[in-house]
TrEMBL record:
This is Argininosuccinate lyase. The lineage of its organism: Bacteria, Bacillati, Actinomycetota, Actinomycetes, Micromonosporales. It is an enzyme of class 4 (lyase). It comes from Phytohabitans suffuscus. It catalyses: 2-(N(omega)-L-arginino)succinate = fumarate + L-arginine. Gene3D superfamilies: Fumarase/aspartase (C-terminal domain) (1.10.40.30), Fumarase/aspartase (Central domain) (1.20.200.10), Fumarase/aspartase (N-terminal domain) (1.10.275.10). Residues 29-305 form the Fumarate lyase N-terminal domain.
Amino acid sequence: MSSSRTSLWGGRFAGGPAEALARLSVCVQFDWRLAPYDLAASRAHARVLAGAGLLDADELGRMLAALDDLEAACAAGEFRPTVDDEDVHTALERGLLERLGTLGGKLRAGRSRNDQVATDLRLYLRDHVRGMATNLVQLADALIEQAERHVDTPVPGMTHLQHAQPVTFGHWLLAHVQPLLRDLERLRDWDTRAAISPLGAGALAGSSLPLDPAAVAKELGFVAPAANSMDAVADRDFVAELLFVASLLGVHLSRLGEEVVLWTSQEFGWVELDDAFATGSSIMPQKKNADIAELTRGKAGRLIGDLVSVLTMLKGLPLTYNRDMQEDKEPAFDAVDTLELVLPALAGMISTMTVRVDRMVAAAPAGYTLATEVADWLVRKGIPFREAHEVTGRLVALCVARECALDEVSDGDLELVSPHLDPSVRDVLSVRSALAARTTPGSTGPGPVADQLASAVDKLDGWREWATEHVVPR
Ligand code: ARG
């Protein structure tokens, strides 16, 4: 180890760290992205040190100017971490010492990397969650736009991937919007718990210096300082919780992706992807693949992996800080990065896809999706549902044997299946009438879907401001 190396510790050590330790320990290659947040926290801390009389006005001025200069140098790529910088905090202290000499060494009073790193990561995640929300809103916009176009395009709704009952494609697409609206709520709920400032906790016990954790919290956009200094540095709930929200979001996107894969298959033929959002094959010239949908499905596995690795890392840790916790950052960053890639691609794919209405209309009644209409028709005539189900089942069996549709059964055969059946049952045997009959809130009829659409648009509009708000002062 060279003696010019900046280290935040070393006084009690006889020599420098072994190469193998340094290589294991270093994390600046992935925590460097915390630099702007670390600098923001440093500015707040400098002001608090001045308030405590530990920096005079001149020193504070020079400190803040140096921090600004360092921030600009970082942004311009002129100041970079070196292999000797253990982490982002070490690198930035080196930058400060280069600019201020011994004055730079005053900033570390009353704080520790333990409260610093917890603060930086909260700031980073709170900042990026708004971007995630913005991308989510855009995906929901794309789904809503398509839903508006297809409020009365019938499709066979499915259970067990078998044709079940007709629904509209608009209703189906809106069924993918609802989970995204819940994801937005989860992000906001997460943010209310993440908006707590660990700074002031020091290593774990707080500080003997007259710091002002509330002022630091306020300056950094937090709602309040942590209630317990030990919890402040030991807590990584905000990482695990966000990774859960990201995983669940990933699962929602994956289920949508899976459906797009199905819809674009030859067998369904319901959707055609825009060329810009599909890929080809290196050997089969005819191929058009839904890679965005597949990558979305695949990335869900990564997001879940990120969550599992952080929970597993945390589960046996005694209070307070342990170095294991350095392993929280890569999964957290990976989840943010993954969603930053997936969400815009998915939104583009959805908003540009062409829906094959003809194929959907043809598929809607296939597989006897109107059988329930017959059973309900019988129920309206006073037949117990149990018997109505039986009768309709026999009618379906007859149609299967005859290879005909429900409304193609002759008057005589209807009578033969059950004396309760008569030709007027054909009134309910159209997809359109089946859809129109569904008037209860939340169902697939035109009225309830229009209501749902309006409310989804309304709710989404309510998120736009939150999603673009700047929570972290720069
Ligand atoms: N790089 C460390 C981390 O990410 C910073 C905190 C180091 N604290 C310590 N006591 N060694 O967790």
